[in-house]
Specification:
heterodimer, A: 548 residues, alpha+beta, 5-stranded antiparallel sheet, B: 143 residues, alpha/beta, 5-stranded mixed sheet, globular
């Protein structure tokens, strides 16, 4: 029950707000009613007042009319005439009583039978009656009691009629306004609104202004709405095309994502996987039981041996905002071949990373092979001489054939090579190294070992030379040649060389031993001044002499 | 001789009356009534029917002259300030009441004087010149 007034108020409110007709009519009706009521009230007051006055003046006139007769009646104390006058007067509705007196004698008194009871504010109109023959002689008195109630009733009925007319006028005006508003405003608006309800934006639909409103405000509203619909339609079309293009792109991307050979995935800052493509699980060689769950499984969990590294990588990635790569060996059963994946992490947000996984097993395998091959190589790629390994193998082979092979080992170190490198770069340095290699090759015989174990040091093992003088001679020839200017295109450089010479000692010498001694001799030569040759003398000449 | 003079006077008086009332009206009563003097008002009240009695209480019988007579016109003009037409309407108003009737009218002064002389209650107005010994002048009406 309590909600009832609220509902009424809401209904009324909706009625007033929801209808221009109601609102306009009320807006006109309310002030018109207030004005009408005020006017009616003012009119009734004024009518009452004027009616009272009019009644009094009418009664005065009435008295004037009968005055002459009354004069005669009073003069003659004629009751019948007085009676006649009184009856004449009392027939007036505004008169409730009439008294005609002549001196102390009451000639006639009449009461109106339809009078409205005793009036506390009764108004008495009295007039002295003079003799018809002597205006100065008073012969009587006539008095009327005004029936104010009757006058009031008359005024009230007049006011009622006036109010009724006003009310009728207000009602008629309100009805006319309501009809006019409905016809000229609400109906065309409703028509346009209904059309607008049915309109579909994908067609080139337009609203039609009602015929009578084509050139008024409603017409211009319709024009504006049509313009809006047109631009909206265009906008929708563009939007639709964009959406379709976007969908196609999305599908493409999705396809790429799904079909990509590379594993693609998205991580949060803790390493928890948010999404991934089929290649991801395939590359990680995850079994059905291991398949990750979005939002719970972390990358670290999928790759247990690398968990700490991956965590570190993620933090680094997010901290620097740069992409990082890492190669990881998959934790798989021993029986299988080792498998490798390359993981690249790209930060794409403050807490999000996008990752790419590639199978790098083949590359890893190739690299390993290359490393293994490199470890088997004996040649220095720069100069074509033997490398340290080649030198070692050669010397080892020599020692394998003969316990005390006849060898003179020349350890050569370039002087001023660093300066060339500094002045002309590595290319210049490389050119010098190759030039030196050629010199060494020219001064050696077939079967000698010529090696560049590293940097600017060279080793020449002269086979079958046990004579220190012979060895020294060759060494000096080499130094002399190296000291010649070396052309590097338009420029030329000059380097020197220091050479230490050692021979294989009888009685359990080794490749390492003789190389070590040659090296010591070379340092001795360097210390003695550049461009020197130093011979490591045999520590046991008698044996050597005996051998000789 | 006396008649000739009276005729002459009358002839002279007629045009004179039309110009200005040269005559003097008097109210006459029967001497036996014992009325020495009446006021104009008393006379008027009797003639207008207010009281049909003398102050003494005796009933009064007013006698009017002919309706077209100069005396009658002058009498009412001086006494009631009314023209004959007004008088006519006055009496007309009273006819329906039936209680009071206008004074009995006689054709001339002589007849009026005769009536007054023979009737103690009668009262009339005549020109002073017409008055004889048989009646008593109760009031002289001067303009």
């Amino acid at each position: 029950m309590k909600s009832r007034p609220n509902r009424w108020i809401r209904w009324l409110d909706a009625g007033v707000r929801g209808s221009i007709v109601t609102r306009t009519t009320l807006a006109i009706l309310a002030p018109a009613m207030v004005l009408g009521l005020t006017f009616a009230w003012l009119a009734s007051v004024s009518v009452e007042h004027s009616e009272q006055q009019r009644a009094e003046s009418r009664l005065q006139q009435l008295l004037s009319t009968v005055e002459r007769t009354a004069q005669i009646a009073c003069y003659l104390k004629d009751r019948s005439i007085a009676e006649e006058i009184a009856h004449g007067l009392i027939s007036n509705r505004a008169v409730s009583a009439v008294t005609i007196t002549a001196g102390t004698l009451t000639l006639s008194h009449a009461d109106n039978p339809s009078a409205h009871g005793p009036d506390p504010h009764r108004v008495v109109i009295a007039r002295p009656i003079a003799s018809p023959f002597d205006p100065h002689e008073s012969v009587g008195n006539i008095s009327l009691v005004v029936d104010r109630a009757a006058i009031h009733a008359e005024a009230a009925s007049y006011s009622r009629a006036l109010s009724l007319a006003l009310g009728l006028e207000v009602t008629v005006v309100a009805v006319v306004v309501a009809i006019a508003v409905y016809l000229f405003s609400t109906r065309p608006i409703k028509a346009v609104s209904n059309e607008l309800h049915r309109i579909r934006f994908d067609t080139s639909a337009r609203l039609h202004a009602p015929a009578n409103n084509r050139f008024d405000e409603i017409g211009s509203l319709v024009t504006d709405v049509n313009a809006l619909i047109a631009s909206l339609g265009e906008l929708l079309n563009t939007e639709r095309e964009l959406r379709m293009a976007h969908e196609v792109g999305e599908r493409k991307l999705r396809l790429i994502f799904e079909k990509a050979e590379s594993g693609l995935f998205v991580l949060d800052e803790r390493g928890v996987l948010e999404s991934w493509n089929p290649a991801f699980t395939r590359l990680l060689r995850l079994s059905a039981a291991q398949l990750p769950h979005s939002g719970t499984t972390s990358l670290q969990l999928l790759l247990p041996p690398h968990g700490a590294d991956l965590g570190q990588l993620i933090r680094q990635c997010l901290a620097t905002g740069q992409a990082y790569d890492v190669d990881l060996e998959l934790p798989i059963a021993e029986s299988s071949h080792p498998a490798w994946i390359g993981v690249t992490l790209n930060p794409i947000g403050p807490t999000t990373l996008q990752g790419v996984v590639n199978d790098i097993t083949q590359r890893k395998h190739d690299e390993l092979l290359a490393r293994q091959l490199a470890s088997l190589a004996t040649q220095d790629t720069l100069t074509g001489l033997l490398n340290r390994r080649g030198l070692d193998m050669g010397l080892t082979a020599a020692f394998a054939v003969h316990a005390t092979p006849e060898l003179a080992v020349l350890q050569l170190d370039l002087d001023f090579f660093k300066e060339v490198n500094d002045a002309h770069g590595h290319q210049g340095g490389d050119q010098v190294l190759r030039h030196v290699a050629r010199i060494l090759e020219r001064n050696a015989r077939r079967g000698d070992l010529i090696a560049r174990p590293g940097g600017d040091e060279f080793v020449v093992a002269l086979v079958g030379i046990a004579d220190p003088a012979k060895a020294e001679q060759i060494a000096k020839a080499i130094i002399s040649e190296i000291q010649q200017p070396i052309s590097l295109g338009i420029q030329s450089v000059q380097v020197g060389a220091s050479i230490g010479i050692a021979f294989v000692l009888p009685g359990g010498d080794s490749a390492e031993g003789v190389l070590s001694r040659a090296d010591s001799a070379m340092y001795t030569a360097k210390r003695a001044g550049r461009g020197q040759v130093c011979l490591m003398q045999a520590p046991a000449p008698p044996e050597a002499g005996a051998a000789a | 001789m006396q008649i000739a003079l009276r005729t002459l006077l009358a002839l002279a008086a007629v045009p004179a009356a039309s110009v200005a009332p040269a005559q003097t009206l008097v109210v006459i009563v029967n001497p036996s009534m014992g009325v020495q003097h009446l006021s104009r008002r008393e006379v008027l009240d009797i003639f207008m029917g207010r009281y049909r009695t003398f102050p003494s209480g005796a009933s009064a019988l007013p006698i009017d002259l002919d309706v077209n007579s100069t005396e009658r016109r002058q009498f009412y003009l001086l006494l009631a300030h009314k023209e004959p037409a007004d008088m006519g309407s006055y009496w007309a108003r009273l006819t329906f009441s039936g209680k009071i009737s206008p004074p009995f009218a006689v054709p001339d002064a002589r007849m009026a004087i005769d009536i007054v002389a023979n009737n103690p209650n009668a009262i009339a107005y005549v020109d002073r010149s017409a008055v004889d010994q048989r009646v008593r002048i109760a009031l002289e009406i001067t303009p």
